[in-house]
Amino acid sequence: MTHMTRRHDPSLFANRGYLAPVQWTTGHASRALAHYLGSAHSQTGTTVVRNAHLTEQWARDLVQSPALVNRVAGLIGPEAGVDQTFLVIKWPHDPAEVPMHQDGVSVATELDPVRAVSCWLSISDSPESAGALQFSIGSHRWGYLPHVFDDTGALTAHDDPRLTDCEFTTVPTTAGEALLFDTRLLHRSGPNSTARIRIGLNVVYAHRSAYRRGSASQREGWVPLRLP
Ligand SMILES: O=C(O)CCC(=O)C(=O)O
Fold it and tell me: Which residues line the pocket of ligand 1, CB cutoff 6 A?
């Protein structure tokens, strides 16, 4: 039966670098989680928690959501795991922006994009005005771009002339949706100009064999996927 919708067309992933949102839980459950996170964290500037899945039970559960795990295993194969997570809470009227970057490359790692995939989970609603994710569609076809890392290992700049004219498309999401995207896809997010909290969890999933630099065993955050 050829009943494949555009939503699930794998060529979309190859051509534009991301899939239409995957529902990992209900909007109701996700908004309840957003409410909990808003009360559990203090509102002193943008909240960033690296590898939240190692320290917070809700994140440990979330990265193993059956709907996500099935999708990820279908894209990169079963022996995959979580490479890292990154929680960002943008509080109401938070001016913070996440600058453009590619998830699959850092000082410590370079991931084979065929065996790794990025995922951004919209824990709250994320309309454009709240700092939704923005993709430079098709930029994954450029491969990993030359990067500059600062002393801490953080990525500080891209030294490639193509980036001067790079255009971004905003992809608004609602609570409980996830965007799966190529680890080379340039992405960023803008400020939250709304009176509501905006919460997203970025998860990079990688197959054990995905590491061109580094290895799964050297990754502090690596945990194997539990297939349902
Ligand atoms: O939550 C955001 O605003 C962006 C997070 C992101 O791009 C990342 O962690 O790679």
Answer: 86, 88, 98, 103, 131, 187, 189, 200, 202
The per-residue pLDDT for range 125-140, each reduced to its tens digit, is 999 999 999 999 999 9
Q: Among 133, 147, 173, 180, which is best to mutate for testing ligand 1, by the most ligand atoms less than 8 A from CB? A: 133
Residue 183 one-letter amino acid? T
- 158 located within any domain: yes
Q: 108: domain CATH number?
A: 2.60.120.620
The yes-or-no verdict on residue 64 having pLDDT over 50 is yes
What is the spatial distance between Cα 122 and Cα 112, in angstroms, rounded to a whole number? Answer: 25
- Residue 168, amino acid: F
Instruction: Please report the atom of ligand 1 found closest to the CA of residue 103.
Output: 10
Quote the DSSP letter at residue 94: B
Domain assignment present for 23: yes
Torsion sign (Cα): 87, 92, 96, 97: positive
| Ligand 1 atom, smallest distance to 188 CA | 7
- 70 lies in which domain range? 17-217
